[in-house]
From TrEMBL:
<keyword id="KW-0597">Phosphoprotein</keyword>
<dbReference type="GO" id="GO:0140358">
    <property type="term" value="F:P-type transmembrane transporter activity"/>
</dbReference>
<keyword id="KW-1278">Translocase</keyword>
<dbReference type="GO" id="GO:0016020">
    <property type="term" value="C:membrane"/>
</dbReference>
<keyword id="KW-0479">Metal-binding</keyword>
<protein>
    <submittedName>
        <fullName>Probable cation-transporting ATPase 13A3</fullName>
    </submittedName>
</protein>
<keyword id="KW-0547">Nucleotide-binding</keyword>
<dbReference type="InterPro" id="IPR023299">
    <property type="entry name" value="ATPase_P-typ_cyto_dom_N"/>
</dbReference>
<keyword id="KW-0460">Magnesium</keyword>
<dbReference type="Pfam" id="PF13246">
    <property type="entry name" value="Cation_ATPase"/>
</dbReference>
<dbReference type="GO" id="GO:0015203">
    <property type="term" value="F:polyamine transmembrane transporter activity"/>
</dbReference>
<keyword id="KW-0067">ATP-binding</keyword>
<dbReference type="InterPro" id="IPR006544">
    <property type="entry name" value="P-type_TPase_V"/>
</dbReference>
<dbReference type="GO" id="GO:0019829">
    <property type="term" value="F:ATPase-coupled monoatomic cation transmembrane transporter activity"/>
</dbReference>
<dbReference type="GO" id="GO:0006874">
    <property type="term" value="P:intracellular calcium ion homeostasis"/>
</dbReference>
<dbReference type="GO" id="GO:0005524">
    <property type="term" value="F:ATP binding"/>
</dbReference>
<dbReference type="GO" id="GO:0046872">
    <property type="term" value="F:metal ion binding"/>
</dbReference>
């Protein structure tokens, strides 16, 4: 694990920034970005913009995606990422994911966000830090809410239309794990994701 940071400029992994900018179900309503509160907080911290192109709009992609996010990465100037397909959050699965394509790239990326134990179980073991459970316990005991992020690159031979046919399960195999500690003192993360009275958090 890297040290905890308060400023996104201190995050060395561009994949973490891309996950925060893309892995959500936000949309524009009356010109404002709206959606789940945690999604909004994470997206707003990136400083990126979200737009929903209409049929006939000029976009830097093979097809017009439902949503495009635009922002800056440390290794490049402003970039656009198409949110090609979304698997929305389901409380029973404790996760959501999106399939994306960055402007100028041939391949697609998948980003996942969810409960740490679930994300860890879907990740390649060699990408998960050995002390992950100790770190989770530490932040949980401090009153932080803990969210895990993961990503994977899809093979270059998959086409845009084939992405539309992907199932949630097909897109999930062997993620690369990235742990993102999220400060939300209103909720506590419990290992079994349940409060003392047994109800889900």
């Amino acid at each position: 694990f890297e040290s905890a940071v308060l400023n996104l400029d201190q995050i060395s992994s561009e994949d973490v920034i891309k996950a925060m900018a893309t892995c959500h179900s936000l949309s524009r309503i009356d010109g404002e970005v709206r959606g789940y509160n945690l999604d909004q907080k994470m997206f707003n911290l990136t400083g990126w913009d979200l737009r929903e192109p209409a049929l006939g709009n000029d976009v830097p992609f093979e097809y017009i995606p439902p949503r495009i996010v635009t922002g800056n990465l440390s290794s490049s100037n402003e970039v656009s990422i198409a949110l090609v397909k979304m698997f929305p959050f389901e409380s029973s699965l404790k996760r959501m994911s999106v399939v994306t394509q960055m402007e100028g790239r041939d391949h697609f990326d998948v980003f996942l966000k969810g409960a740490p134990e679930l994300v860890i179980s879907l990740s390649r073991k060699d990408t998960v830090p050995d002390d992950v459970m100790e770190v989770l316990e530490y932040y949980s005991s401090q009153g932080f809410r803990v969210i895990a992020l993961a990503f994977k690159h899809l093979t270059n031979d998959i086409a845009w239309k084939e992405v539309q046919k992907l199932t949630r399960r097909q897109s999930f195999n062997s993620y690369n794990s990235q742990q993102k500690m999220w400060n939300d003192r209103r909720k506590r993360f419990c290992r079994n994701n349940k409060s003392k009275n047994g109800s889900e958090l």
